[in-house]
Structure formats: C-alpha cells, structure tokens
Amino acid sequence: MNAKRILVVEDEQPIREMISFALGSVGFAVEEAADSRQAQTAIANHRPDLILLDWMLPGVSGIDYARRLKKDELTREIPIIMLTARAEEEDKIQGLDSGADDYITKPFSPRELVARIKAVLRRGGPGGEGEVLEASGLKLDTASHRVTSGTATIEIGPTEYRLLEFFMSHPERVYSRSQLLDRVWGSNVYVEERTVDVHIRRLRKALEPYGHDVLIQTVRGAGYRFSTRL
Amino acid sequence: MNAKRILVVEDEQPIREMISFALGSVGFAVEEAADSRQAQTAIANHRPDLILLDWMLPGVSGIDYARRLKKDELTREIPIIMLTARAEEEDKIQGLDSGADDYITKPFSPRELVARIKAVLRRGGPGGEGEVLEASGLKLDTASHRVTSGTATIEIGPTEYRLLEFFMSHPERVYSRSQLLDRVWGSNVYVEERTVDVHIRRLRKALEPYGHDVLIQTVRGAGYRFSTRL
DNA sequence: CGGGGCTGTCACCGTTCTGTCACATGGCGC
DNA sequence: GCGCCATGTGACAGAACGGTGACAGCCCCG
Questions:
Q1: What confidence tens digit (pLDDT) does each residue in B35-45 have?
Q2: For the whole model, what pTM was predicted?
Q3: Do A190 and B89 count as a contact with CB atoms less than 8 A apart?
Q4: How far is the C-alpha of A144 from the C-alpha of A132, rounded, in Å?
Q5: Crossing angle (nearest 10°) for helices A62-71 and A89-97
Q6: Would you call B96 and A107 a contact, using CB atoms and an 8 Å cutoff?
Q7: Are B183 and B166 in contact (CB under 8 A)?
Q8: Nearest to B144 among A188, A193, A227 (CB)
Q9: pLDDT single digits (tens) B47-90
Q10: Is A160 within 7 A of strand C by CB distance?
Q11: What are the phi and psi torsion angles at A216 (to 5°)?
Q12: Which residues in chain B have their CB less than 8 angstroms from residue A222's CB?
C-alpha cells in the first residue's frame, strides 16, 4: 500500500515539526502548511488523504477553513482532524459543526494522534461508500445512515446507530463494556461503563418491534455480542 | 479480575495521599513514590499497570523521567498519565514528546482522575485473536465466548466457561483441585477446594444433554482431567 | 424561552451465579 | 461384607450482575 499523505496545517513551526516527525516516523507521507494559502497550494499539488488542521490559524481561522474545504466538491471527501488547544465543550461542538471528522485537544501524545488518524482513514478507506451490513433481515446502510427491516425504517439515535454499526461490522464476537466504550464512544471519552448497558437497552428497544433485539446478546461476565445464532 | 496496579509518583505528600485514597477506594492497588528513585524501586518490585507522574519532581523532572521510562524496553509499554499544575502551551509542547499517554491538569476531581485512568487502561490490548477449541464435537469459541455442540449452543456460567476453556486448552492432563483454583480462579483467591467439585458438576450437568460430560474425568486421589479418551 | 431529542447517571429490582454445607454415593483395602 | 475416605449432589443465602425507569443537563429548533 502507498503511504497515506497527511497535510499538516499549523502555524507554529515547532509543533508542526514535531507532528511531522511523529507521523513521518510511522510511515505517513507528511506535507506541511503554515496557513490556509499554503494549504490550498499543497492540496492542489498532492491531494492529501487526510488533513490535520489547527484550530487557530492566522488569517482564515482553522474552523472557517474546514468549512470551506467541506463545501468544495473537490475536497469534501478529504477527512479532517482538528487540533485545538482549548478543551472547552463549546469548541468541540463548533469543531464538529465545521465538518471535521475528529478533533484532538492539545496536549496529545503522538501515539494518540497516530491512532486517531488511522481510525479516521479506516472509516473512509476501502469498500468506498455505501456499504450495506445485513443480518437476519436487519439492514444497515452506511451510506444513507439508515437502518431497515423489510420495508420499514427503524429509527434510532446517533449513539445507537454507531453501536449497531460497530456490532454489525464485528459480529459473532464478545466485546466488553470497556472495549465498546473505546470503539464506539472513542478513546478519550470518560463515561461510566454502565452507560453502555443503557444504550444497549435503547438499541434493543428500537429493534424489538421487528424481533431483531435477539441479535444483541448479553454475555454475562464478559460483555455483549452481536450474533445471528441464539 | 486482578486489581490494576497504579504507581503514583508525586513529591507532595498530601496530594499523593489524596490520590492514593481516591484510587484505592475504587479498587486499584496503589503504590506511592516521592521521586524517581523510589519510583524505580517500586517498578522493579511490582510492575505497575499504569504510572501517574507528577510534572514537577525534585531531581529528575517528571518529564525527563517519562522520557526515560519510554526509552527503556522494559517500561515502554506502561502507560503514563502526567499530572501538571500548569496549563501553559510551552509545557504542553514538551509533554507532546515525552511519550505520556494522557495529561491531567491540577486541580482535578478524583472522579475525573479515575475516569481517565480507566480510559487509558482500556486502550491496552483489544484482546487477542479468536481461537476455536474443539474436542469430540464440542466447540468453544473464545472470540464469541460461546460453547456449541453441532448447531446447539450450550449455556454455561462464567466460571464453568473459564473452567472449560482451561481444560480444553490443556487436555489429556490431570490437574489437582489446588492447581485448578490457581489457574481458573486466580492465584490470590481464597475458596474451599471442594468448590471445584461443585463447578465440575455444574459443567458436567451442562454438557450432559449432549453427551460431552464424559470428557470431564475424575482421577481419584489426583484431581480432574479433560480427555477425549475413556 | 419552551418543547423535543439525546445523553449519561442513578437507584432500585429481579436474576443468575457462587461458595459452602450437609448428606448421599461409591470405590477400595482388608 | 465393612469402614473409610474421596467424590457426587441438592439446597441455600449472599453477592454479583445486568435490566430498567426516571431524571437532569444539554443542545437544537421553532
């Protein structure tokens, strides 16, 4: 596989170099840009597979730039990870609104950065768009973000959707609450393990009218499992 | 599951004790160290599962110490959470390449501390590969945590599962009650040896409808054996 | 600023599991 | 056949575990 190209847009040189070094040393092809103009040039030259975008940029702010990228047909599909120094909730929300695929709060470890990048790349990666997961008549269309059973559409919340998507793409395997938190919620989210139970219940409740709730199985003492077998 | 060991490296005694108390009360096994020398000793004695490292330490600074830990082959894999009183950008930058896995800025709540520790520990190993153990038509799938015979799923409790998993991965060999307690229950658990008998019986009872109970054999005066031979 | 959707936490509850006991059963040496 | 001792077995109380309804905070949308 060709090395993935990462474009680092960050105005502070030391940080930029540190990131470049960290990513370069694990095999990514890194390009750097200090502001949105340089970024545009870089994108035009070598379309990156992912953009790391600093929150604070001189001139056009990172968040505005992210919006611009997501509006443009040519760049819309490039995943963006926002780097932000501030951890305030408000920032995070705005960051998500901007269309960023993920965000990382400074300070962060290189390991975490790499992990996030890989995670985001994985999402958009192979199989392209529009994968349809199916099990016992329960269908989940990743492209349209829709869950159906027969002709009926099943309404579920965002978290339940992510949970179901994870389960359906990793069936016949037990996951502990801990692992689910990691894989579905994200690695730097701090919530109670029992919260998983609640979302499992919400998911089951939504699937129950169609009889698909049996697919979500409890493995006492171990976690939960998605399985078509009883 | 064994309690996770946390090593707290912090020179100010009151803070150290507060942290110890907070972690101890939620079930972590806590060890304390006031400086990097004590920390080294503690690590040598009982390899911790995670290190809480104060930013400011007398002598070798926390950040230098973190770098040292991450260089050493033996300690590289131990996750580190840095405790820092200052939130300045400069410190963060330095923190970036110290190799720490997370950062917490003082003051912090015990709750947050615990949550982040759990989150970091969670990242560890996503669990190995799925192995399928088989004997005389009895199948045990470690990935899905399921025991089957033909098309039927055999329902067994957690302890019976662990017991069967142990037996199937160590077949044709006698284990005394004491050894089974050690390998299946855990090394520092106090239970009666006869308890093994009871779980053996429960396991046999569960396997009996499928005729697999003959695989669990009593060796009078020695213990039990899992064997496909009569 | 009030309603509605979503999320994370709790407290409470029923179920399942666990470790022990007491007693039954059974092999073995004498 | 007799006793002895190891093992099998049914019962049980307490603990652990997971299910569930309720609720408060949050944000978004009129």
A1: 888 999 998 88
A2: 0.70
A3: no
A4: 9
A5: 20
A6: yes
A7: yes
A8: A227
A9: 898 999 887 777 777 778 888 888 787 888 888 888 876 554 44
A10: yes
A11: -90, 105
A12: 145, 158
